[in-house]
Design a protein that fits this description.
With 332 residues, the protein is of the alpha/beta class. It contains 15 helices and twelve strands. The protein folds into two domains: 157 residues, Rossmann fold, CATH 3.40.50; 153 residues, Rossmann fold, CATH 3.40.50. About 2% of the residues have low confidence.
């Protein structure tokens, strides 16, 4: 059975959708699964078990230069790649106009069907054209976790039941010797601080990160600090300079390299962001910081070593630190 998954972006949404691949393979072991997504996120999927083919696109960039010869050429190449083979099931897991267009462009087998969500779920994006592109729409409960949203849609489309356990299927160090090189670092006490996020109102105060870093350093941890842009680099440097000898500002990493770096950490503490959701998918002990009461929708689920902490103005340093100690002690 050939199946195409359409989930184009963003990083956190793609991470939340990863369990769909493992659910399908558990129910349909001979399934051939392809996934179409934005090119910048494709390196993450190269580390996911069970995908036959990854089909990258650059819709975000193309729509800004739609009339140029280069864009038209790249669009034609993408369509040719997308239409290489017909699919028995095409599942739009995003529910937006752009994903509906991609679903419609893909070739469906003679008895195949296109599937999409019939309705919006609380806090998630949804656009009506997604229904027009589908042959069958699947009604969903309005209050669903982001992970459950994709799992329920796919299971209803393909007619199987999934287990309560969640398998993200990341195979970070499989089939190479990098794990042997990285394992000694993993044994050391290394905590990853994920302070960057696409929304300013999701950030945690700089001084909180410094105070937390000092507590972690006093407990024997080395703090690793990420950045994805100049602003985040400045924040990482501001934290590191106040943790002399106990902090390391990581270089700018590709998504592939970032996944491997994270897998070598003892754990992570971060705000609500795609990278924090990667920490969950990797199974790291993790505390996720929320300024809004939305952890029910995107936060870690039912795991004693992965928790979310929430306060309207951001949780206190002590709250986050105590949550980390609980995660650390519960780690498998």
């Amino acid at each position: 059975m050939r199946i195409l998954l359409v989930k184009l972006s963003s990083l956190g949404d793609i991470v939340h959708t990863l369990p769909v691949v493992q659910d399908i393979l558990a129910a349909i072991p001979d399934a051939q699964i392809d996934w179409v997504l934005e090119k910048s996120f494709a390196p993450l999927l190269t580390q996911v078990k069970g995908l036959r083919r990854i089909i990258p696109c650059e819709l975000r960039r193309w729509r800004k230069s739609i009339w140029t010869a280069q864009t038209r050429s790249e669009w034609r190449d993408f369509k040719a790649d997308l239409q290489t083979c017909p699919y028995d099931a095409i599942i739009d897991l995003q529910g937006l106009s752009k994903s509906a267009v991609v679903s419609r462009l893909a070739r469906v087998a003679p008895q195949g069907k296109r599937y999409a969500m019939a309705n919006q779920t609380d806090g998630s994006g949804y656009e009506v054209p997604t229904r027009w592109a589908a042959d069958i729409t699947v009604p969903l409960n309005r209050r669903l976790h982001a992970v459950a949203r994709g799992r329920q849609l796919a299971s209803a489309a393909l007619g199987y039941s999934f287990q309560n356990t969640i398998n993200y299927g990341l195979k970070v160090f499989e089939a190479d010797d990098l794990w042997a090189q990285a394992a000694p670092e993993k044994v050391a006490k290394k905590i990853l601080f994920i302070h960057g996020t696409s929304r300013l109102d999701k950030t945690w105060p700089l001084q909180h990160w410094v105070d937390l870093g000092q507590r972690m350093a006093a407990s024997g941890y080395q703090v690793s600090l990420l950045h994805g842009n100049a602003t985040e680099l400045a924040t990482s440097q501001s934290i590191a300079v106040q943790l002399p000898g106990n902090a390391r500002v990581l270089p700018l990493l590709s998504l592939h390299a970032l996944t491997r770096e994270m897998a070598c950490c003892t754990g992570a503490i971060g705000v609500d962001s795609g990278v924090s959701h990667m920490a969950v998918a990797l199974g790291l002990p993790h505390v996720q910081i929320y300024n809004f009461d939305t952890a029910w929708r995107t936060g870690p689920q039912a795991s004693s070593h992965q928790v979310s902490v929430f306060a309207p103005s951001g949780p206190s340093v002590d709250t986050v630190y105590q949550a980390w100690l609980a995660c650390e002690s519960a780690a498998p």
